[in-house]
Design brief:
The structure is a single chain. The protein has about 425 residues and is α/β, with parallel strands linked by helices. It contains 13 helices and 20 strands. The longest helix is centred in the middle third of the chain and has 18 residues. The chain is globular and about 70 Å long. The strands form 3 sheets. Strands 4, 13, 14, 15, 16, 17, 18, 19 and 20 form a 9-stranded mixed β-sheet that branches.
């Protein structure tokens, strides 16, 4: 029997699983505390309250550099919707990434972070006039149009020379959850291939618009590199002529539980590069500039969320957060790997469901988690892989204030987004 098999039955400290689930350099202290970026996580919970989102700045920066190093010829845009925090946008810009956004609000975060409009791309399936006006006011150079009607709306607002891309449905099945599969027909995003010529003509009819490329997105939490190679080949086959830009979107997978693998960035680079050159040569087209939009793969595993245990019942541990700060389990059936921190426990590990505080049976964070049998109210649990689409998708369900966002680096802690208060919520209610 191996040590890993013996430890749970003895109730000793569980070792951190390998494979990039936790931020790089995370370790467990002899007292059972978790140290991230040289900072005590039980200390963060005590200082900033729970729930609390924690981001390891060096980990996020390192992942951004990995994408740039793997595809130096490409423009890497951080998917801003995954973590719309000023500090995160600033880190990405400092690491040489551009930024893609989908709303006036995300444009304003980019502006506040000091990211110039020339390094921002706007997309989304139903942009409002406010979204378009905010982008144009910030000098956003490239806008991805998603429908024929959007061409007319943009053409009426923009100055001469506005660069546009067309989002096209590539017909590539990413084989992920149906709620996050976006590259096949029958969903709301993009233009069908057969409708592409009409949209190209419509753009040409607007003197202020200049078509520079095509855009696609095949889904989220995509682990198969081959799916992106297929998308390249499909998209080049749809080019209406020489274009300067091909945006493959993002959706690259990140591990959420032990045993899940980190996305193969090097494999992506090699296969996409070869496919792009081959397809362009076969059609006698110049090789366009390649754009990719990683978000989750950069910040998901840079983050974790701290919760305090509120109640314990046979088979259940209830914490002070849940679907208001992490809606992914209820939306996509996502599951996580919580662990007890802040103290060592010699108790036997038992299968446990970690549930939230909200009035929904689906408010579940994890099932069949091996937690110590002596977990009690007041304990702190840490949940890894929550750096993407957690703060971004948080809500005030049950009038619950949204959590703080804290970053750590080299033993230092910075409050990036303060905890919301009930007074903040009531300030908007005018009676």
């Amino acid at each position: 029997m191996t040590l890993a098999e013996i430890l749970p039955s003895l109730g000793a400290l569980d070792p951190l699983p390998r494979g990039g689930l936790w931020p790089e350099g995370t370790r467990v202290g002899p007292d059972g505390d978790l140290l991230v970026g040289g900072v005590s996580m039980s200390g963060v919970a005590a200082r900033f309250g729970t729930p609390c989102h924690v981001l390891d700045e060096p980990h996020a920066r390192a992942r951004a550099r990995e994408f740039r190093a793997a595809l130096p010829e490409a423009e890497v845009l951080f998917a801003g919707k995954s973590s719309p925090v000023r500090a995160v946008y600033r880190w990405m810009a400092e690491e040489g990434l551009s930024l893609d956004v989908c709303s006036a609000g995300e444009v304003e975060v980019a502006r506040a972070a000091g990211v110039p409009g020339a390094r921002v791309l706007l997309h989304g399936n139903a942009k409002t006039d406010d979204d378009l006006k905010a982008a144009l006011a910030h000098g956003v150079r490239r806008i991805v149009v998603d429908s024929p009607a959007e061409v007319d709306a943009l053409g009426a607002l923009c100055p001469a020379g506005q660069e546009v891309l067309i989002r096209v449905i590539p017909g590539v099945d990413a084989r992920t959850h149906r709620a996050i599969t976006t590259g096949v027909s029958g969903q709301k995003f993009g233009v069908a291939p057969e409708a592409l010529p009409a949209v190209v003509d419509r753009i040409a009819a607007h003197p202020n618009l200049r078509l520079v490329g095509l855009h696609c997105h095949i889904g989220s939490q995509v682990g198969r590199v081959a799916a992106y190679e297929e998308a390249v080949r499909r998209m080049v086959s749809l080019f209406p002529g020489p274009l300067t830009t091909l945006d493959l979107g993002g959706g690259f997978a990140a591990p959420y539980r032990p045993g899940e693998s980190t996305f193969d960035i090097t494999g992506l680079a090699n296969r996409v590069r070869i496919a792009l050159r081959q397809e362009c040569a076969a059609r006698r087209l110049p090789v366009p500039n390649l754009l990719i939009e990683p978000g989750r793969a950069v910040v998901a595993n840079a983050g974790l969320t701290l919760y305090r245990v509120v109640a314990v019942k046979p088979g259940f541990v209830a914490v002070d957060g849940g679907m208001s700060d992490n809606p992914r389990p209820s939306l996509y059936g996502a599951r996580y790997a919580p662990r007890l921190i802040g103290r060592a426990s010699g108790a036997r590990r038992v299968p446990t469901a970690v549930v939230g505080r909200h009035c929904e049976a689906g408010d579940l964070i994890a099932e069949d988690v091996a937690l110590p049998q002596d977990v009690h109210p007041g304990d702190v649990l840490a949940v890894p892989a929550t750096g993407a689409y957690h703060y971004a998708m948080a809500s005030n369900y049950n009038m619950t204030p949204r959590a703080a966002v804290v970053s750590v680096r080299d033993g230092h802690t910075d409050l990036r987004v303060r905890r919301e208060t009930v007074s903040d919520l009531l300030r908007r209610d005018l009676g």
